[in-house]
Write a structure and sequence with these properties.
By secondary structure, this protein is α/β, with parallel strands linked by helices. The chain has 2 domains: 132 residues, Rossmann fold (3-Layer(aba) Sandwich); 176 residues, 2-Layer Sandwich (Dihydrodipicolinate Reductase, domain 2). It is 31% helix and 24% strand. The chain contains 9 helices and 15 strands. The strands form 3 sheets. The chain has an 8-stranded mixed sheet, covered by helices on one side. Strand 1, helix 1 and strand 2 form a beta-alpha-beta unit.
Length: 343
């Protein structure tokens, strides 16, 4: 099947990563890049890539069927609309737009031009998330009723435009869009209530971290937390079910699941806790629980780029659906509202 000609708009960190690592050569032919920075243009030339003079040159190239947008967030809308109107299919980095209303505008153009618009929500493919999905499906720890998802670092907000409010900086839009997307696609239930706390301890005009607690209509509680001032990290995942608890410590998938054996006679013995005794907080007896390895993640059948290729060439169903992306955009807007932050 004929390859898709693709051009990259924005050849910074993510643009170079797409080109060097993500885009499969068997399905795509990278026609070139456009970046406003001379430095990045020079990097592209060093990497053997064609450099377009401007965006119009990209859009006038008949061999370009797909435009990948990997620019700062505030420029996504304009580039997406121009690309769609030029007859190009579009892959857009996330967060997709600055607001849900901007996304609605773009989706109307995509529908009008009959072109594919798809957002690169790549962390749906993360192995740690796929382990949690497997726990959800196989009920190893019973029916899951609480999910805690955290990403912690101690390096502050990354440099460049991610410090700038007008360009869509901050951790809600940077990491939150990933973790909230994972929770949304996993739980699949509307939000009953939500609380949000945003951190500004580093003195930037954008949030350097946040904690969001969501109660879903199906009764599941989700806690999503991102921090950039955490010198001691909490676990990546902590998940409670009706029959046990699972923990994933970090990206290396280290962790375990502790499940109840159902031995009701195995009552815990009281322990000394501080200056008092407790049976409630005592560890369960050896007969009451067993430790199990985490399940092997069921890897996705298709990569993002192969799925996009089939959507364009075969009319296949997109793995990342625009209505899901819109839901997460609305959720992030609600988080800013709950935290009384005007974005």
């Amino acid at each position: 099947m004929e390859k898709l000609g693709l051009a990259i708009v924005g050849y910074g960190g993510m643009g170079t990563y797409h080109a060097s690592t993500l885009i499969p050569e068997e399905y795509y032919d990278i026609k070139g890049i456009f970046d406003i920075a001379k430095k990045q243009q020079a990097v592209a030339e060093e990497n053997g890539l064609n450099v377009y003079e401007d965006l119009d040159a990209v859009l006038s190239d008949k061999d370009v069927e797909v435009v990948l947008i990997a620019t700062p967030n505030d420029s996504h809308k304009e580039i997406a609309i121009k690309s769609l109107e030029a007859g190009k299919n579009v892959i857009c980095e996330k967060p997709v737009m600055m607001s849900s209303s901007e996304l609605d505008e773009v989706l109307k153009v995509a529908e009008k031009t009959d072109r594919v618009f798809m957002v690169h929500q790549n962390r749906r493919w993360d192995p740690d998330f796929l382990v949690i999905r497997e726990l959800w499906d196989n009920k190893q720890i019973g029916e899951i009723f609480q999910i805690e998802s955290r990403v912690h670092g101690a390096n502050g907000i990354p440099g460049d435009w991610r410090h700038v409010k007008s360009q869509g900086g901050g951790m809600v839009l940077d990491w939150g869009v990933h973790l909230l997307d994972q929770i949304h696609t996993l739980v699949g239930s509307p939000i009953k209530s939500l609380t949000a706390d945003l951190s500004f301890v580093l003195g930037n005009e954008v949030d350097d971290g946040f904690t969001v607690t969501i109660l879903h209509e199906n009764g599941i509680k989700s806690v999503v937390e991102v921090g950039t001032t955490n010198f001691v990290k909490l676990p990546r995942w902590y998940v409670k079910g009706t029959k046990g608890t699972a923990i994933i410590h970090d990206w290396d998938l280290s962790g375990t699941a502790i499940v109840a054996t159902g031995n009701d006679a195995a009552t815990p013995a009281p322990i000394q806790a501080g200056v008092g005794l407790t049976k409630t907080m005592a560890p369960p007896s050896e007969e009451a629980t067993e430790e199990l390895p985490l399940p092997t993640p069921h890897m996705m059948n298709e990569s993002f780029y192969f799925n996009f290729f089939r959507v364009v060439r075969e009319g296949a169903e997109p793995f990342v659906k625009n209505e899901e992306v819109r839901d997460v955009m609305l959720l992030m807007e609600r988080i800013f509202e709950e935290a009384d932050i005007v974005k």
